[in-house]
Design a protein that fits this description.
About 50% of the residues lie in helices and about 15% in strands. It has eleven helices and eight strands. The chain has an eight-stranded mixed beta sheet with strand order 3-2-1-4-5-6-7-8, sandwiched between helices.
Length: about 280
């Protein structure tokens, strides 16, 4: 790959699971030519691994590679490193040419900070979540000044391929992240605990896990499609003196409701700290 002949249409800085979840559908649907995508990762070992995971033609280089600097020549750039790496990445970046669009998926990092670190860019904050891996994601967007209509369309195309997209005031993004980005881990913990309970009650482990997953998926579909308040569904299931109300009593005694509220609040506060 000649160093002087790299002019990517799409640059990706950091190629972890979330970045891959966004990039792979773009490539699969032909929205981006693999040869027009340049990704920069932390090490040559990671670059070698990622080349086996993405379509042939995608250019993936380590940060120490001299070709990495060309990622900043792309008119559309996805910033997907860890928040703790942001300052180092900014220091290694090249001056922007023509006000490229920089989309950051870094938790808690404000538009103001992004604009200070990348003054020649138009910046966007995006908060996607891991269900994007199966096309069921949720992404919230907040824009800096100067993002034009064509750039907004590009951002909507990028995230619309992996789920639902909405715009929020930047001040709401930490709460959105706590619910939708951290939330899958909280729900996974609930699913694991429910399966453990079924094993304790006598079901085989594999069956208990599958049934717990299907129960959660079916419940989410019912709430969404019937537009039910969660309390309505709870009351539909909990008949007088029955099994469900007995279980709900134990959950209230254990403080599950309060624990989940505090978990979301803690995640939101941590997002603010990272910023």
């Amino acid at each position: 790959m000649p160093t002087n002949n790299i002019q990517p249409a799409f640059g990706v800085i950091g190629l972890g699971r979330m970045a891959q979840a966004l990039v792979v559908p773009l490539l699969a649907k032909g929205h981006v030519d693999p040869h027009q995508l340049l990704a920069v990762v932390g090490s040559e070992t990671t670059a070698t691994l990622r080349r086996t995971e993405l379509p042939q033609g995608v250019q993936i280089v380590a940060a120490a590679d001299s070709r990495a600097i060309h990622v900043w020549r792309a008119p559309l750039q996805l910033l997907a490193v860890k928040p703790q790496q942001l300052d180092a990445v900014a220091q290694s970046s090249a001056p922007a040419q023509g006000r490229p669009l920089l989309i950051s998926v870094l938790a808690g990092v404000s538009l103001d900070r992004l604009q200070r670190l990348f003054p020649g860019h138009c910046c966007v904050r995006a908060v996607p979540n891991t269900p994007a891996l199966v096309g069921a994601g949720l992404t919230a967007l907040a824009w800096s000044d100067g993002v034009n209509a064509e750039q907004r369309r590009q951002v909507y195309d990028l995230f619309g391929d992996v789920g639902e997209v909405l715009e929020l005031p930047e001040s709401k993004l930490d709460a959105f992240l706590a619910l939708t980005s951290s939330g899958p881990a909280f729900i996974a913990l609930v699913a694991e605990a429910m399966a453990d309970g079924a094993v304790l009650a006598g079901l085989p482990r594999d069956l208990a896990q599958r049934l717990a997953h299907r129960t959660l998926a079916g419940t989410a579909a019912l709430l969404d499609q019937r537009e039910l308040h969660p309390g309505e569904l709870k009351d539909m299931v909990a008949s007088p003196g029955g099994t469900t109300i007995a279980g709900l009593r134990r959950l209230e005694q254990a403080g599950l409701r309060s624990a989940l509220i505090e978990a979301v609040m803690a995640a939101a506060e941590r997002s603010r700290q990272l910023g």
